[in-house]
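Changelog-adjacent note: as of this version, every example in the card shows the full chain rather than a window. The one below runs 425 residues end to end.
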Amino acid sequence: MSTANQTSKPLEQYIHLLQEKKNIILQGAPGTGKTYTTASLAVRLGNPDFFELEDHTKVMEEYERLRTNGQIAFCTFHQSMDYEDFVEGLKPELQGEHITYKVDDGIFKQICEQARSAEGKDIIACIDNYLQKIRGKENQREIPSITGKAKLQVWWEEGNKTLSIRSTLSKKDYAPARPSIEKIKAHAIGKGGENNWSAYARAFIKAVKEEYQIEDDTSSTPHVLIIDEINRGNISRIFGELITLLEADKRAGSKTHPITVTLPYSKDSFSVPSNLYIIGTMNTTDRSTGSIDYAVRRRFAFITLKTDPEVIKTCIKDDAVRAKALALFKQINGDGTDDKASFIATHQAGDFDLEDLKVGHSYFIAETQEALQLKMCYEVIPLLREYIKDGILQGKEEDEKYFAAWAKGECLNTEPAEATADSEA
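Full-length structure tokens:
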């Protein structure tokens, strides 16, 4: 079996798991290839006809194409991130001499809207068709406000770039609200919004969806949200009430338990489309943040990526450099799970699994001996020093001897010196 087939087989298993579960987290020690695996998964899911997963350059080119097309979105969780950043929140905006607040969509809400309206019934075409129905004041329609507590009159004067909207309770003969049609369309596909008349714009979009029965119509085109360092954020706080909607059977279009909620700021009806997939990554050695709670865990499947010397064998073409890299890898990480003589195994501390402590294979991939030496000196050794400092590894007297040898790109000779002929006599 070729290396390509060996590599693609687990990837296809991950794709199948992602399609069933909708949400997965790739976990592992630093350098185990989580970022690249995430990109490959997103590309393979977003474009089922893409098969050149062994070509890093082509994978990243396709990744960028899908990202530009709106099928892939990327964000990194951090300790100060919250619901208002991720889903939606009120943002101040200066209007002349006054400060107003508008609802600002976060990355999660944006990609949900993009996934929902990517294909199927074209919301843009439906808006254009609806405009023709309300052309002229004499053809005005009465639609509910976004909260449903009031009624709005809406019409369009041909040639105008704005709608005309007013409350039925208004005594004015003209329309005080004139949201931009272009911005309404952008909002409908999750690529912008009407800032000045946001509530009116959302009410109009809702009316169009109800007119053409596309409120719950979702696309089948896969969309992927990548959340890097997912464990560094307070997931329950960031997702809020939407954490329940992540489950496969709670998604829009599900035949079992589809759930729709009303968002607190915009008052929009909201559901998570079934064609949105979430891929998170987390370092198993990162204990600086809180652990992921059970409510979150049961909504994600966890895939552990292990340190693999076979990747080094495949990626390094130069025989001499490959031999050096594999020797260093073996001395630091060991040769298999039963090797107890490696640096990591003899320095293991605390409650960490041995696999979590190993230095990832990407740290050993270099084209030249000089590049390998630089990686050892400025990446591997500082990482191990940090582990020792944090108590993840136990420090020992001979550590500096190891570090001095590795900084030169060499293994430390740990074999006892052979007895000389004189000493044997």
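Structural remarks: The radius of gyration is 28 Å.
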